[in-house]
Design goal:
Blueprint (H helix, E strand, L loop, with lengths): L4 E3 L6 E3 L17 H4 L2 H75 L3 H14 L4 E6 L6 E6 L2 E6 L4 E4 L2 H4 L12 E6 L5 E7 L7 E7 L5 E12 L2 E6 L2 E5 L5 E3 L3 H6 L5 H26 L26 H6 L1
Antiparallel strand pairs: 1-2, 3-4, 4-5, 5-6, 7-8, 8-9, 9-10, 10-11, 11-12, 12-13
Length: about 325
């Protein structure tokens, strides 16, 4: 393509005929640009040749625009998820904080409840010294939640409150109607605290001769009484043995049954029917024998027969004795 030149209308120097500004005088030439002055026929190939160049930026714009909108959508989605995640995290932290606060408060309460009140301990110790002279101290609880002492005196069970400094007798029959205690006899024979300081195992007499005793379990905090068993109770090596009606049951120092049957379990068992059948057979046999004797008595009544003495037939008379005469017999 030839390049034409023309004189500048301002300075007169020869310049490109389609230059808009003169490179010498820097003024507008008024020349038409080469695109406007080119003929239509010649512009077609130029447009065709320039089409790929112009289409490339359009394609690149489309390519760039797609990921741009995608990134914007991802940004919006990530913001929503971040907000939700932040809300969930805050709620989780609040719940965790509340849980930790509750646990710490419960631990504080436990420490306070288990803490020993020294004033209560002094009062309980002084009372224990007095009771030990004539009674038996079962357990001392100087903690703040119980602050009491259990002791046995004269066959009666007592509890002493260290705060009010009052003593109260515990009536086992009033605590549980099934618990019977004969206070006219020996009353409460024995009371021991369990190894975990939770229960007091009580052995109390139920009759005057102490032939039958009751084994009871009392909660040291709530004073709830439970009847374990009754019978002949013996205590040896930390275990209680109850014997009654041919059965034997064993309990540990906390009142848990180790072996055997309780009296309720033994009474709930079905009774054997063999003994009842034997009793019925014996009764029928006796009735048959009585009937047989009555019949024989009617047929052959009993008679009292007295044996007569035997008279000898051969009588020997001594020769010195004469027989009386007939005249003598008549005279007599």
């Amino acid at each position: 393509m030839e390049r034409r030149i023309s004189p500048c209308p301002n300075c007169g120097k020869m310049i490109y005929s389609h230059a808009v500004l003169c490179p010498y005088c820097k003024r507008r030439t008024g020349f038409k640009p080469a695109e406007q002055s080119a003929p239509a026929a010649s512009s077609a190939p130029v447009a065709a040749a320039s089409a790929p160049a112009t289409s490339r930026p359009a394609q690149s714009k489309k390519k760039v625009s797609k990921p741009y909108y995608g990134q914007q959508h991802l940004r919006r989605f990530s913001k929503a998820t971040i907000v939700k995640g932040a809300i969930i995290a805050v709620l989780a932290l609040v719940v965790l904080g509340l849980f930790i606060a509750v646990q710490m408060q419960s631990q504080r309460l436990k420490k306070l409840s288990s803490a020993i009140d020294h004033s209560s301990q002094e009062v309980i110790d002084s009372m224990a010294n007095e009771v030990s002279q004539s009674g038996y101290v079962i357990a001392k609880f100087p903690e703040r939640d119980r602050h009491c002492m259990y002791y046995l005196l004269g066959g009666h069970l007592f509890v002493f409150d260290a705060l009010t400094r009052n003593e109260q007798e515990l009536n086992l029959s009033a605590m549980n109607p099934q618990a019977a205690v004969n206070y006219e006899g020996s009353g409460v024979l024995q009371a021991n605290i369990s190894p975990d300081d939770q229960y007091i195992i009580i052995v109390a007499s139920r009759d005057a001769g102490n032939t039958e005793c009751g084994l009871y379990q009392m909660d040291a905090k709530t004073q709830q009484l439970t009847v374990l068993d009754r019978g002949k109770v013996t205590y040896d090596n930390g275990e209680y043995t109850v014997q009654s009606g041919g059965r034997t049951a064993r309990y540990d120092s906390s009142g848990t049954k180790l072996a055997g049957l309780t009296i309720e379990e033994a009474e709930a068992l079905p009774k054997p029917a063999a003994k009842e059948e034997k009793k019925k057979e014996e009764s029928t046999e006796t009735q048959v024998e009585e009937k047989h004797e009555s019949v024989t008595e009617q047929m052959e009544p009993k008679m009292d027969v007295v044996k007569q003495p035997s008279v000898p037939t051969d009588i020997k008379i001594s020769p010195n004795i004469t027989a009386p005469s007939s005249t003598e017999k008549t005279q007599e």
